[in-house]
Design brief:
Layout lengths: L5 H10 L6 H15 L4 E8 L2 E8 L10 E2 L4 H8 L4 E3 L24 E9 L2 E10 L10 H26 L2 H16 L10 H13 L6 E4 L6 H10 L8 E5 L8 H6 E2 L11 E2 L1 H4 L4 E5 L6 H13 L1 E2 L8 E2 L3 E6 L3 H6 L5 H7 L2 E4 L10 H16 L3 E4 L1 H9 L5 H19 L4 E4 L15 H9 L12 H19 L4 H8 L3 H10 L13
Parallel strand pairs: 7-14, 7-15, 8-11, 11-14, 16-17
Antiparallel strand pairs: 1-2, 1-6, 2-3, 4-5, 5-6, 9-10, 12-13
Helix pairs in contact: 2-4, 5-7, 10-12, 13-15, 16-17
Length: 529
């Protein structure tokens, strides 16, 4: 034990030249490591900026591949990344291990006693890390330096081969840099990166890679909470316009009488209150990309103005006689079925066809349920940093409940659910190593997979059974309506227009009802610069 058989080294070397998938190549590497060194888990991580991204693992909880480890948050990773040689941490090391609580070998909170890290270097440049952990304190004491050096070299070569193949698939070094920029930006903004390995997500990623380099107008369709804005950011970052502005416009938040001014700008004195000349969003996005979110909310009068932009690539600011030429790529998103809206006369057919040059349909989370595990791991690691925890893990029973839920609110609901569960778990934990239990997910209507808006009704109908009393039928009705609206606001991320559509009521009527029920209507920001 401790020495790698020559025959296995030859096989690893041959693997580097074979037409294996990246996943198979990584798995064969990890198998060789575990055959050579007895350990409870081994993880291959790629360096992405100041983060380590797990690419393959054996021995950890399945959600670990969805995690992203900030090197500065983990002293052991920091030491490994700063070293040029393998590091064996002392058994009595007080440095926290990033995998504490994540081992498959135990559901209990057991600290890993033996830890070793191999920096993976190519031409003296760090590209990743290989870590080995064991619950046996002396597991790594007798491993020869030669064995560790060989493992480092072979692991670095395997990872580097995968990275080179990825660059070839992206066709250019520039495309790879764009992907790295995207990952860095996505992790620093809400919504994160595109997480998921399901068939539906792989198809989505291929579609984005295909259409992003073009200047085609893209219509992004999908239910509330699936990540339409994240897809728009991805398209922009993968395009040749990535160094130019990406301007976001929430069409549902613009008052009808200000739409033309907000989109195309106005000159001083064009209307009452126009005390200065103001550039519109299309002008700001010139040479870049404009993202028209909730495009289905635009009134018909504004749709005709937008059609002119798509046809001629020109705008006319309010109060100006001449037109301006622009070079702006248009991305649009909607949670409505625009084809149906066209049939109902609520959306212009000519604008619909102009927008849907290349339509992209984002699958709901219930159609890619196998991605719940990776997404859960990703959100857990993000929350661990936000809550200042040493570790945040998900118990297997809790993970099964998440996997069996249908997620009417999609990825956004999953994120919010894990956030609430993490707070509950932290509140009952005695240490900074927190485990989310199934009991922390009691608010999920898991038994019947009932959407949130139906849960409010089911709770209210139990008044009689629970022996509760109400002052009157009107009071009970008000309580039901108040809870229903609050639940829908939470599900639709406080978007009043979406809530009105879900209830099939006019937005102004919903506002009046909310005021009567004492629900505060928050003022929304019209546009985000």
């Amino acid at each position: 034990m401790g020495e790698i058989p020559t025959a296995r080294l030859v096989e690893l070397a041959i693997d580097l030249t074979r037409g294996l998938t990246t996943k198979n190549r990584f798995e064969r590497l990890l198998e060789t490591v575990r055959q050579s060194i007895e350990c409870d888990c081994v993880v291959l991580l790629e360096l992405n900026g100041n983060q380590l991204k797990p690419l393959a693992q054996q021995g950890l909880m399945p959600d670990s591949l969805g995690r992203r480890f900030n090197i500065g948050d983990h002293p052991r990773f920091e030491q490994i990344c700063q070293s040029n040689t393998p590091i064996r941490f002392p058994t009595d090391s007080e440095l926290p291990d990033p995998y504490d609580g994540l081992l498959l070998t135990s559901e209990e909170d057991i600290h890993i006693h033996a830890c070793m890290g191999l920096p993976l270097l190519v031409e003296n440049k760090l590209i990743g890390v290989l870590t080995l952990d064991s619950l046996t304190p002396t597991a790594f004491d007798e491993i020869s330096s030669r064995t560790l050096d060989i493992l480092s070299i072979m692991s670095a070569a395997t990872l580097n081969t995968a990275m080179l193949l990825r660059k070839l698939e992206d066709r250019s070094v520039h495309s790879q840099k764009v992907v790295e920029e995207l990952t860095h930006e996505a992790l620093s903004k809400d919504g994160g990166e595109l997480i998921g390995e399901s068939t539906a997500m792989q198809k989505l990623k291929k579609d984005l890679q295909l259409v992003a380099p073009s200047d085609f107008t893209v219509l992004i369709e999908g239910e509330t909470g699936v990540g339409k804005e994240l897809v728009a950011r991805t398209l922009h970052q993968l395009s040749s316009r990535s160094q130019q502005p990406l301007v976001y416009v929430n069409c549902a938040a613009i008052p009808e009488n200000l739409i033309e001014s907000e989109l195309f700008g106005h000159v001083k004195g064009a209307f009452t209150g126009a005390d200065r000349t103001r550039a519109g969003k299309f002008s700001i996005a010139n040479k870049g990309t404009i993202f028209l979110d909730e495009i289905g909310e635009l009134p018909l009068s504004a749709q005709s103005k937008l059609l002119r932009v798509l046809q001629n690539q020109e705008i006319q600011p309010v109060g100006m006689d001449k037109v301006e030429q622009i070079d702006t790529r248009i991305l649009a998103a909607t949670n409505r079925e625009l084809a149906n809206e066209v049939e109902l006369g609520k959306f212009r057919s000519d604008l619909y066809h102009r927008l849907s040059v290349y339509p992209i349909k984002i699958p709901p989370l219930r159609d890619r349920n196998q991605d719940v595990t990776l997404l859960s791991g990703y959100f857990c690691e993000t929350l661990r940093r936000k809550l200042g925890l040493r570790q945040l893990s998900i118990h297997s029973n809790a993970l099964r409940r998440l996997q069996n839920y249908r997620w009417p609110g999609n990825v956004r609901e999953l994120e919010h659910s894990i956030s609430r569960a993490a707070l509950l778990a932290k509140g009952s934990a005695k240490t900074d190593i927190v485990d989310i239990e199934e009991s922390h997910l009691q608010y999920l209507n898991n038994d019947l997979n009932v959407p949130v808006q139906e849960s409010a009704y089911s709770e209210k109908t139990q008044i009689k059974e629970e022996g509760l009393s109400v002052e009157s039928l009107k009071q009970a009705t008000d309580d039901f309506q108040r809870q229903l609206i609050l639940d829908l606001l939470n599900q639709h991320d406080n978007n009043w227009s979406s809530v009105a559509r879900a209830l099939n009521v006019d937005r102004s009527n919903l506002n009046r009802l909310a005021k009567r029920l004492g629900i505060r209507i928050k003022k929304t920001v019209t546009l985000r610069e």
